[in-house]
Amino acid sequence: MENNNIGKINISDDVIATIASKATCEVEHVCSLSAGIGSNITDLLGVKNFNKPIKIESSEEGCIIDIYVDIEYGSKIDKVGYDIQSSVKTAVEEMTDIHVIQVNVYVKGVKEAPKANK
Predict the structure, then answer these.
(1) CA angle, 25 as apex, 21 and 27 as ends, to 5°?
(2) Which family does it belong to (predicted)?
(3) Mean pLDDT throughout 68-75?
(4) What pLDDT does residue 103 have?
(5) Distance of CA 8 to the CA centre of its chain
């Protein structure tokens, strides 16, 4: 939250998650965002926010972003992960002025790239 002489500016975690989502999907070899761990169990129990593909933990120091993705089969997983981290950190910090402490990428699966129509 930022204070100025006019009032406060508060940016919600959902806004940060939206920015992170768009930045992630723009990275080459990312197929899709993937539900977080234990989504089937938490759905049955009615627990919210455990199956979202992007989780934000905010504090006074900044935010930690967890991202769950499926990537293209055959791509270099560590490079794609690094590209996601870099893209998300840059996008969130540039758009919000919120310090990104960490971007943790969890590769939940690999998928075949969509085939081009002939």
Answers:
(1) 125
(2) Belongs to the asp23 family.
(3) 96
(4) 98
(5) 26
DSSP lists the bridge partners of residue 84 as none
Distance CA 102, CA 95 (A): 17
Neighbours of 77 (CB within 10 A): 13
Q: Taking a C-beta distance cutoff of 8 angstroms, is the pair 92, 53 a contact?
A: no
Domains of the chain as residue ranges with CATH: 30-111 (3.30.70)
Q: What pTM was estimated for this model as a whole? A: 0.82
Sign of the alpha-carbon dihedral angle for 90, 93, 99, 105: negative
Each residue's pLDDT tens digit, 10-29: 999 999 999 999 999 999 99
